[in-house]
Design goal:
alpha/beta, Rossmann fold, two-stranded antiparallel ribbon, 10 strands
Length: about 325
């Protein structure tokens, strides 16, 4: 199943953010903690910039701070601010985040990007959590397992694809089980009413796209196996899955048509009959903003543009909610 959320104007984005389907928490495993797994490589780790300055100390374009100076963009991120003008955090959405720089846990807010604990960085989890929370009264836990430069072909390779199981597939599953087995320790505010695995979100593609000879031809098969194997290993046969479209490509090292092939493979998995009711492909590449409007020239990280990461997170959250609402 495909969901198109190619917002080309901020006005339409704000309109979608305000649209909330009617489904009470009583219809959605009443009272249970809702657990979402977010996984991928450096983009999912979080390369969005809350603040970044040039050599003269001026705020660079494309950060959250710079968005506040534009009334339309400030309205888009209003939910991220407290009435006294500080960046908000929410205790009803908890994050467990692991990447190559360590582990960070705590309430949803800034600081769960690539540079764990540094509030100048964030990823899709920020607005994903807010988007889901619009619809759900119960507690939410986001478990994010993302490491930079990791392929599906090798690093996340699922058992059903044969060959050596990817070490980061194993670490992802192990992390989820460890957190779920120690909820009160990892999520101190957990109220003890049980949990429901409510979604798996995959935003990924760069390393495989850069290997058109080996990884690209296998991407569709490997992604389908990733979903099947994760559902099996987590004992969640109907786990809702959101596939976020690979946003690229740019860069001298990786060229078309490999990027288009990866996107088509991602969409094809969501269109498989076995996944028609519980997997969705969410378009994201139109959220990328130009280099001139961004704080970085890192093409492979969407120029580290905050608006891009905010919109991607919101689209992934709304895609997850579509599946949940359809399921319940």
């Amino acid at each position: 199943m495909r969901r198109s959320l190619s917002w080309t104007s901020l006005a339409s984005a704000v309109g979608l953010l305000l649209a909330v389907p009617a489904l009470s928490s009583a219809d959605f495993a009443k009272g249970r903690l809702k657990v979402f797994i977010l996984a991928g490589q450096s983009n999912m780790e979080g390369q969005g910039r809350a603040s970044a300055k040039d050599e003269k100390g001026n705020e660079l374009p494309g950060t959250l701070m710079s968005m506040l100076s534009n009334p339309a963009k400030a309205a888009l991120i209003q939910s991220l601010r407290t009435p006294d003008g500080k960046w908000a955090h929410r205790d009803d959405v908890w994050v467990y985040d692991v990447n190559e720089n360590g582990v960070r846990t705590g309430p949803l807010g800034l600081g769960y990007g690539w540079a764990l604990g540094n509030d100048d960085w964030f990823g899709p989890e920020l607005q994903f959590g807010n988007a889901i929370k619009k619809h759900v009264r119960d507690q939410i836990l986001i478990i994010k397992t993302a490491w930079g430069g990791k392929s599906l072909y090798a690093d996340f390779r699922p058992p059903s694809s044969g060959g050596t199981v990817g070490p980061y597939y194993t670490q992802m599953v192990t992390t989820v089980k460890q957190v779920l087995g120690n909820l009160k320790q990892e999520f101190p505010a957990y109220d003890g009413r049980g949990y429901e695995l409510s979604g798996f979100v995959w935003w990924h593609g760069w390393n495989d796209f850069c290997d058109p000879k080996h990884a690209v031809p296998e991407y569709e098969q490997n992604l389908a196996n990733l979903i099947r194997d994760l559902r099996h290993d987590l004992h969640a046969p109907k786990l809702p899955v959101v596939i976020g479209e690979f946003t690229g490509p740019w860069g001298a090292d990786c060229k078309e048509p490999a990027a288009t092939a990866v996107r088509h493979a991602q969409a094809a998995v969501a269109d498989m009959p076995e996944f028609s009711k519980n997997v969705v492909f969410v378009t994201t590449h139109d959220f990328v903003r130009p280099r001139a409007e961004s704080p970085s020239d890192q093409t492979y990280h969407e120029f580290q543009n905050a608006e891009t990461y905010f919109l991607v997170g919101n689209a992934l959250g709304e895609g997850a909610w579509d599946l949940i609402a359809r399921k319940h």
